[in-house]
Amino acid sequence: MHRLLRNIGWLLTGRGLNALLSLVYLALATRTLGLDNFGYFAIILALGQTVTGIANFQTWQFVVRWGADGDGPADATGFAIALDLLSIALGLVLAAVLVGTAPLWLPLPDELLPVAFGYCVVSLLAIRTTPTGLLRLRFAYARTTAAEAVQPVVRAAGAAAAAIAMPTVTGFILAWAAAEVAVAAALWIAAGRLERINLSRISLRHIPRAHPGAWRFVWSTNLSGSLNVGSKQVLILLIGAIGGETAAGGYRVASQLGQALVSLAQTVSKAIYPELVHAKETAHAMARRMANIALIAGVLAVLGTLFLGRPALALIAGPEFRVFWTMVILAIAGAIELVGASLESLLVSAGRAGTAFLIRAIPTVIGLSLLEVAMGWNGLKGAAFTVMGASALSVLGFWVAIISLSQITITVKPKPEVPPER
């Protein structure tokens, strides 16, 4: 538990730096571009992150899960890199389809379509989950934090340069693309210094041969990751398609400020997963303690949003972005996600990635299907309510699944041997 809290501390240090600098580059982008152009900017970012999120496999989990075996992480790393290459190939096809059809469903000008496709390509080439997995396998969270700090620093510097020299949507997209490349390079360098990466072990067959259920785990975690994207980036695209670029831009501002807790939830999840894999006997107790801590942190964060959110929104984004209550609703959704992060990690670490996927899938599909109705009812606040409802249903499902898992574990636990009577 001490090591877990120390690792979370390192990750939160990186998140804290990211959060601080994100306020800088968000302010530069919103005030330089204005409401409409920031909406185009938000749509392009969502396209790139949608393509990467859907095509990308959660290879860091594979490195952590199978890299701890006796033979070391060479085969797990080779499998992960092979999946990364597959992700790039699939992602390029998906990017071509989404950007090619964008004029039919997205409020994106024709002159920005090449920019959008280029950003998708850069995002795919900057996939970095494999080196992240190697660092987490060795619990090298200090190195991870240092490498990941490159992204917000380059992004903030790039945003400042764009605001001065190229105050357009293209200028800011170039800044974001440079940050993606920089952080990917930093993580690969950090991982390479810690663990020798043997390119001759790149294969899609070694790990599945040694672990018969590998492909089922791969597809389950990939679908879960795609659902996480669907509840965030695809949502921005759909909001843009329904409400236009101003709605997409407004929702992104509210989401970035209000759903900072979701990033915190991901941080907790990524830190606790390797611990749960290694600590099988105490996994339930560890997840329960982390959920209790998360509940307190979530309540405090929501209260902070209620009291400080309005002046922060006015200071950072300006009077054009009137999304305070949307931000509050998304903060509540983030608090719910924060509580569920350790529960979801416990399910995945117990080999129930498929169960976790289904628990995520049903509420997400319901929320996305109700989006147009919700926006017709109450605009961006309606969209935020669909996110909050999906999060609440998912976390409730995780809780029920964990209870069932505990009961099964108790039922199948072997009885202690009774010595024979003499």
Please, could you describe this protein's structure?
The chain is an all-alpha fold and 422 residues long. The chain has helices at residues 2-55, 59-66, 74-105, 113-125, 129-137, 141-148, 150-165, 169-194, 206-210, 214-230, 233-243, 245-258, 260-278, 283-316, 324-349, 353-369, 371-412. It is found in: Cell membrane.
Strand content: under 5%
Report the radius of gyration as a whole number of Å: 22 Å
Low-confidence stretches: 410-416
Give the SSE string. Answer: HHHHHHHHHHHHHHHHH
Keywords: Cell membrane, Membrane, Transmembrane, Transmembrane helix
Protein name: O-antigen/teichoic acid export membrane protein
Main location: membrane
Membrane topology: Multi-pass membrane protein
Kindly summarize this structure in a few lines.
With 422 residues, this protein is an all-alpha fold.
Detail the topology: elements first, then pairings:
Blueprint: H1 2-55, H2 59-66, H3 74-105, H4 113-125, H5 129-137, H6 141-148, H7 150-165, H8 169-194, H9 206-210, H10 214-230, H11 233-243, H12 245-258, H13 260-278, H14 283-316, H15 324-349, H16 353-369, H17 371-412
Helix pairs in contact: 1-3, 1-4, 1-6, 1-7, 1-8, 1-10, 1-11, 1-12, 1-13, 2-3, 2-5, 3-4, 4-8, 5-8, 6-8, 7-8, 10-16, 11-12, 11-17, 12-15, 13-14, 13-15, 14-15, 15-16, 15-17, 16-17
Any key phrases for this structure?
single chain, 422 residues, mainly alpha, 83% helix, globular
